[in-house]
């Protein structure tokens, strides 16, 4: 690590960052891969998104605020649709994973860009339906969908229900029979892949709650619980088997896991053909494509993912003598994540002496783990920048923390920020479009920030910020 001439304090602070974090030559520079497409720093040093200075956004809408670049989100969605249509000429569907960020405006953008939608709760389904999304283009996930949620999905005509347990198969079969319909079903398969990501966001290793295991099963028959689930779906006249579903986890950067999972799930497809004489027409390979949160991350482009998956699927289908099923994928983070940043105001700057005399700089902002729980929950890495002015002060390694009563309330664990950072400055954290607002909470009765969408030089609120009245409205005493 290069030590700046700023002196002992800076050198000491510099010893406490991760090995990969390099001091920037110019602390005002933006790394394009981390920011929504329309974000630039103006000559006055103020960040602009869609042509609007963030100082204007802060003055108009307050901080913290999630700021989403509509054109950026739309273009990522469109890139997935185009890439998968090109890679799978017989047809492929992209289901935007609404859990990453959902509101009525986003539902409409996704519909207009020609994508389908993945929801995983009655609440997400309600938002999709309220925004007028075609139910036939919705996939409904969840390891514990209630009877009421299943009923709503069946009544609305949801296009696919991804079943996740034997209890659910029985429940759904009864419900669909009572309604006199055949419910379209996919079977969620646990393929036993150890995805290289945080344990809490990996979903295809054996010891977790999702899906039916390919390898293991109480029934003790070939194909594990997954093959047994297929038998039970096929045996239920009120269920229609669309296909198999596999999702190996989230924030994944290499194709290897997808290759193993496609091979294993197509192995089950071949077993279904041999055992039942049918080839389910569809196959969903899930989402999980990683994005860049820091300079260390090197994500796939949609076209690379689509091409890699097409090669893998074609190869495995040829090997098993199968026809290529209609493929679907479920990207969430890689569509919504890079399209937004969070704008905070600095409240305090504090240098804390560590054991051995080194110093850590704590920059406190007006949000925290209530608007972004990912750093506390997954030890996630983020970067950030001073957004409201230029600075020629030397960079100082800093830790950006929130205002909550919790020492793990960290937003950005380590980042070089100008050493003259002061209360009132604005900080922007990129890559916060996914799993931030959607995982926001009211810890310490801190109201959740709103979401401001910027497009064509105009800004509008698409999710209103909570107020204290909102918090008190639920407290009926
Ligand atoms: C079944 C399923 N599909 C899609 C996704 C979306 O993942 P990501 O946002 O990482 O693309 C998830 C979340 O991990 C998921 O559980
Ligand atoms: N919420 C996770 C990803 C989703 C995991 C659920 N399948 C994250 O913030 O990274």
Annotate the secondary structure layout:
Elements lengths: L7 H7 L25 E2 L5 E3 L2 E2 H8 L3 E5 H18 L4 E6 L6 H9 L3 E4 L2 H9 L7 E3 L6 H10 L3 E4 L2 H14 L3 E8 L21 E2 L10 H12 L3 E7 L10 H21 L5 E3 L17 H19 L5 E4 L3 H4 L3 E14 L5 E7 L8 H5 L6 E2 L8 E7 L8 E9 L7 E5 L20 E5 L2 E6 L4 H7 L3
Parallel strand pairs: 4-20, 5-6, 5-13, 6-7, 7-8, 8-9, 9-10, 9-11, 11-12, 12-13, 15-17
Antiparallel strand pairs: 1-2, 2-3, 4-14, 14-15, 14-19, 16-19, 17-18, 20-21
Helix pairs in contact: 3-10, 6-7, 9-10
The structure holds pyridoxal-5'-phosphate and lysine.
Lysine (LYS) binds next to loops.
* CATH topology value of the largest domain: Lyase, Ornithine Decarboxylase, Chain A, domain 1
β-strand number? 21
Uncertain stretches? 1-14
Q: Could you give me the name of the CATH homologous superfamily of the largest domain?
A: Lyase, Ornithine Decarboxylase, Chain A, domain 1
- Supply the helix-strand structural class: alpha/beta
- CATH C-level class of the largest domain is Mainly Beta
Characterize the largest beta sheet: strand count, sense, and whether it forms a barrel.
9 strands, mixed
Number of helices: 13
Mean pLDDT over the full residue set: 93
Could you estimate the helical fraction of the residues in percent?
25-40%
Task: Choose one word for the global shape.
Answer: globular
User: Which hetero compounds are present in the coordinates?
Assistant: pyridoxal-5'-phosphate, lysine
Count of distinct structural domains: 2
Please report the distance between the alpha carbons of the first and last residues. 56 Å
How much strand content do the residues show? 15-25%
Rg from Cα: 24 Å
The CATH architecture name of the largest domain reads Beta Barrel
